[in-house]
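Think of the structure tokens as a kind of shorthand, similar to the way a musician reads notation: each symbol stands for something richer, in this case the local conformation of the backbone. In the example below we present two proteins back to back. Begin with the first one, reading the sequence and then the tokens, and try to describe in your own words what changes along the chain.
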Amino acid sequence: MKPDDDRSGRDDPEHRDDIARRDHRNADPAPTPAPPPPNGILWSIAGDVRALLMLPSALALQVAHPAIGAGVDEYSVFRTDPWGRGERSLRSVLLWVYGGDEAAAEGRRLRTLHRSIQGTDTRGRRYHALMPAPYAWVHATGFPVYRHAQRYLGRPFTEAQERQLYAEWLQVGRILGIHDRDMPQTPEEFWPYYRKVLADELELTAVVRELTGTDAPVPPPDRGPRPVRPLLRALWPLLLPPLARFRRFLTIGLMPPDARQALGLPWTPRQERALRRFGLVVRTLVPLLPERLRYLPLARRARARHRAARC
């Protein structure tokens, strides 16, 4: 759910070094943060295939922040290599939860890669990807999106589960190098912070328009079995329009309503009914799948290792 780590090399060494020095000075003298606990909320939902349906909403909410939108617009390869970009981002997210000792290393890798992302946003303000406010917002978006999407794709969280989810999400933030002082520490503190960002910062950036549009050119997937790729390329002009409409439908529909309203994204009662019908099918069928189909490979392997270690 972080901005892509493939980008051009435009850099301001003096500013980058200043950020690095501040990182060093502000580093908490704490032990390496551990990932969320096995069998916690995130252990159950982050690697579930339904998480793939939630990620576009979280990404759109991230890049609605002017600094993040500008960074992704200028540095990301999401236009030229969307499938590779998505695969790398998904692997990173899964490592935060299921990576064990690799989780903290992945967090350090991301911070290092983001040190060269800087520029000027749409409001004329200088930004750097590791500035505390935008860096924390990128991570913060996961909590409201998980909470909202779960109401359609699974069972709504109880108050206790929601509180546990937030505590685990804070733990993931520590893996990513987000200081506790830069993130609300309880759900009660989160919502005023969230509403303030919606009101004061978010806008319909160029990247949000692309992610919620249906006419952006998207190359065919270059992953998957070799025999299938030529067929996909041949059929892609026919497959892309309905896929783009479905992506827009899920991106806007699984975004929290107050975020949709802040960005001026349209959502009709008819679309809401369609999303509820789609959610009913998903939350009925997915729990019936065997684990090898329900969980993404990295998550499935971690869960299997954990079960084996307990035996």
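Once you have a description of the first chain, move to the second and do the same.
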Amino acid sequence: MGLLEAGCEIEFAPPPELCISILRQSILAVHDTKYIDYLRVAWSHWSQNQNASTEIFPNISPNRHMVNFNENPVALAGWYIADCAAPIGQFTWENSLGSVSAVIVATSRIKAGELVVYALCRPSGHHACRDMAMGMCFLNNSAIAAVELRKQFDRVAIIDIDMHHGNGTQQIFYQRGDILTISIHGDSRDFYPFYSGFENEYGSGDGEGYNLNIPLPKGSNEAFYLKALEKSASRVLSFKAEALVVATGFDTFKSDPLGCFALESNSYYKIGRMIRSLNLPTLFVQEGGYFVEALRENARQLVKGFENV
């Protein structure tokens, strides 16, 4: 409703089954083939087992001392699902495809010349790695969007403004220099996903210097946040990006149950203004932001801030 109140025109993406070949091509430009094949059939195979649970949860997490691949359904769950926050249910694959369908339509609008499009996706995607689901994310919508935009723009930047580090996006592009990845998030020393998102993660190989993490302490307010966003904007400009993906999370709001920051509703207006000042074709891709009464207003403020520069 917040997007409608901001004056956005609503377009529904086509059902995934009508464009599955296009979606698969876009997905495989980002994700591992075996991982995608697992997601596609995971529930149907799992549900055939006697006494199968209603959702697939891993009960083992392979580590560096375990090197042999095992195709037992329980073993596969541990191999491809990183934590218990990404259970696979009956409609997980179809819902994830729906998110990608929305992203593909949105990127096509940007490539056709529109200045800004908002892809309202669920489930979100920025924790999904190339070959692993985690944190309620299965397919990395923001990464897929960036690769789609690269078909037309030489340099694409991603700014992740979700409360949590965009670890999956970082992992996917860590060795690439044509897609700049930036994440502003709660300090991973104290906050999910704990093992990534630190300032010393710069990228490697061709991607060295093209990954920027800005971790902020618990309780960070608008002033702290806008300073971090200003640093991000400066990096995008120096990168000479031609298009921008904003991995958009509202779990930075002060009362979000999964957040630890202290942003107010009008903070998102200022965030939108700063993003607009970059003067780039911009695709907002929905990430986190959970059910609080102000969620509607926060989304409205972000869009109005972008529009009113």
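Compare your description with these statements about the second chain. Residues 92-111 form the longest helix (20 residues).
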